[in-house]
Amino acid sequence: MELVCASSAADGCAAVDVPGGALWEEVLEWGIRRHGMAPASWTDYLRLTVGGTLSNGGISGQTFRHGPQTANVLELEVVTGNGERVVCSTAARPDLFFAALGGLGQFGVITRARIPLLPAPRMAKWIRVVYDRFEEYSGDAESLVTLPEPDAFDYVEGFAFVNSADSVNGWPSVPLSAELPFDPAIIPAGSGPVLYCLEVALHFNQHERDTIDQRACAMLRPLRYIRGLEFVVEVTYVDFLSRVKRAEDAARANGTWAAPHPWLNLLVASSAIVDFDRNVFKRILKDGIGGPMLVYPLLRSKWDPRTSVALPESEIFYLVALLRFSRRLCSEGGAAAELVAQNREIVECCRSNGYDFKLYLPHYQSEADWARHFGRDWPRFVERKARYDPLGILAPGQKLFSRSRPPPPLDL
Length: 412
Ligand SMILES: Cc1cc2nc3c(=O)[nH]c(=O)nc-3n(C[C@H](O)[C@H](O)[C@H](O)COP(=O)(O)OP(=O)(O)OC[C@H]3O[C@@H](n4cnc5c(N)ncnc54)[C@H](O)[C@@H]3O)c2cc1C
Hints:
By secondary structure, the protein is of the alpha+beta class. The chain contains 13 helices and 15 strands. The protein has an 8-stranded antiparallel beta sheet. Strands 1-2-6-4-5 form a 5-stranded antiparallel beta sheet. Helix 9 runs antiparallel to helix 11. It is globular, with a radius of gyration of 22 Å. The structure holds flavin-adenine dinucleotide. Flavin-adenine dinucleotide binds next to helix 2 and strand 6.
């Protein structure tokens, strides 16, 4: 990895040139250790490659503010299906630059990315608060992601969980430390089968130490969460960004990491999210999924429409990530099929209710489904494929395009 001076970088001139196969955790480690700097936009899990997440989107709790990872890249080196090695950006070969971002690997292999860097904070105040009413949860989450930047949290996510003592799906999944237990007696009588946890963070440095608590309190005050169900810890910025690594270590130890993970990731318009909660969280998933059920808002205006990513139409839409970790799957072969069927039921529920939604990390079996997924941008996607990978060499497993027959050999 190499630090470069990039005049178009957001904050002065720092950026890093990263090989496409580097892991985000390597970028974090390198940036902090060598320069005290880091990218602004992350995924929750950092053992993913830079080229891989840029080919999809790259979403986490910073996305509402800084945009997805596809909005935080200055330049790419791409090897197209034509075998051409191209350095592209918004200024040079922009069509290939935007095609490759969110392009599911269909137009080229990203071999290098130039990622802007910002001075990294030292610490994060990491906070979870609990709601029993979805309308209040989503209303507060939406107000937080639309606050002007100086008043905003640095990170906003959230998840649904089961209103029970279940150790994986229920109350114990909320506290951030063993010293802060969850007291179920505080949950209002008559609460439903599912509760909601808003998760936010504020970054700070040593000189802000004295004022950070006051700032956090002032920001939490207008929120309508259940008083007494708030959980706050302070961790280093690196530990905060590495939080899923700890979950991975635990999952590796108990065997669930190696089991199949029939995950489902959706982007659901704000206009449909209350109905989605009623039909999906409160009905289909009321007993949980053996892992996190993320649901938090993002802003369409932070995504560049020239990239290949397909999004719902509305300005505010939610990431819904059903991150199933099931121990049953290790021993019972049929269980994975059941969960895949449940995922299909959820997608069908979105379709039949006419929700404005898209799959994130999409996979479909037919060209008709892909055409529906990309909607009015499908002709652009097809045209980009014809330009950059006319023989259909790249990522054929996604069943987006069938592989064309190569042209006949030249008759010399
Ligand atoms: C445990 C886990 C946690 C995740 N957490 C998040 C998250 O928090 N936020 C989020 O947004 N996503 C998340 N994802 C999804 C992730 O963004 C995609 O799976 C992404 O493809 C991962 O990159 P990879 O290196 O693992 O890709 P691989 O799984 O190796 O590749 C998947 C596909 O991506 C494309 N691809 C990969 N590398 C390149 C490249 N260099 N150039 C062009 N195309 C390429 C290809 O089409 C390939 O088929 C998670 C995935 C996992 C497995």
